[in-house]
Amino acid sequence: MTGEQILQRQHRRERLADATKKLVCIALVCITLIPFYISVIYSIKYKSEITINHLAWPKNPTLDNYIRVITENEQFLVGLKNSVLTTIPTIFLLMIVCSMAAWVLARNNTRFYSLMYTVMTMGTLIPFQCIMLPLYLNMYKAGLVSTNLGFIIARSGLQVSISILVITSFVKTVPRELEQAAEIDGCGKFATFWQIVFPLLKPINATQLVLNTVYVWNDYNTAVVLLRDKASRTLPLAQIVYFNENTAELNLAFAFFIMAMLPILILYFSLQRYVVSGVMAGAVKG
Amino acid sequence: MKYSKDNQLARGRRVRQLKTQGTNLLFLLPAFALFAYVVLIPFLQGIPYSFTNWKSIISDKKEFNGLHNYILMLKNTYFQQAFVHTLTFTVIYDIGANVLGLAFALLLFQNSKFANACRTMMFLPFTTALTSAAIVWSYVYTDVYSVLFGAASPLGQSSQVVAGMAVIAIWRDMGYCMLIYIAGLKAIPGDYYEAATLDGANTLQRFTNVTLPLLVPSFTSNVTLLLAWGLRCFDYPMAVARNMEAAQTSAMFIYDYIFGYSKAGLGQASAVMLTIVLVLLTRVVTYFFRKSEVEA
Q: Could you tell me if B13 and B134 lie in one domain?
């Protein structure tokens, strides 16, 4: 056998290994996505078809279920309204207050600031169960229970610790020179932050935006404690109620699930590269 | 003359310093205020509640009763059961998600369009609500698992319900673990592998002697994070096993005792206990991982 043949054989073997690996990956991805597949096909089937043929692609796909979820009772629309009106303010509030605080915490390491950092990131170790009773009482006295504002405050407060942790470690990787140059040019602290630092934090803020949206939009635990009125329910709460009322009409429950998830999916796929790189960046230093 | 000029300069510097400090505090204030109102103050308020016989959130009557709640709680069979369920759930979930996350990371850590696309899809379950994941999975169990393997859905059986929920949690969070392991793998310098290969190490040896030790920071971060998520397990059983005794977790126990059964003091004591367990376990895990950490 000539050297060239050996090389060729080796090359072929490598290509085969690579192809096998890709096939394994595709198979694993498909298995992982089964629950999504089920949700989609159940949501576009008529009720009669679900019981006959569980997993096959529907013969006559329909959007009826979606229309019925939206029009037949208010739960979905009320939930959607509340989820939008709480999630959007929360993520932007967090983005602004946490980048401001993280900048100060990353750039000052006197004892006071390290203490503040320790205290503010300690929250990652406190389970919600431990604070929900006093938080509920305080909010009840302040008239914040079952209101969008109350939920915004609670969810923002609960995300502060992890956001500060992640953004501070990111700020530490941003060189100081630009800020120092700006200050020498007579730029005030506020101007320096908004014009120089904040734009540099765009990658980490994009990541945090998506992750915080996921956490707030999907939150059930805080919502079930603080949102006691029917009119204040967010989507996850509305979904469980709806699901329990409609176990007989699965197709409706799944149409609800898909629609509740859609905004997150759109956001995730459009900011996907920030999320993947951001989670990884936060991990190494965090 | 010169003296007063120096004085003036020093004063100017001091004023500037004070101003900087002031702005710094102003920058910190909004985040700190949110954190204090939602987490810090309630946390400090909650500890004294756990030493009272407070019954329900609508009554103001509460008297100090020392460690009574804690003793009552430790003797309570429901509490013991819930604690065992929570720990079982956490162990299966934490190990499962980390093992699968690491396996996927090893398959997908190279930079290519294909690997990137796979990563994006693998992370997708993480974007679903825990409650939605649980509800959809209850149908994966009855309509796929049961049909394929001829076994009944684990969510319907007392002996399997905790494991069944752990599988849902593994499915949802393994993509997150994967990303963190990929970050860890990328941080390992390529020359380490070359050196190991030159020394005659085979693939397995390179994995156990180079990859694993250098991944310790990623292990620490993943295992402690999932430990915290697992011990708080609440959404899954609330969504699919609300009335199953075998699926009650500590978080549900706390919720029921505070908001349902009018035993707020006892519920709060269990919550404090959960926090202590969480902090201790996190410390222990971090300690053991830190001990085996090596410098890259």
A: no
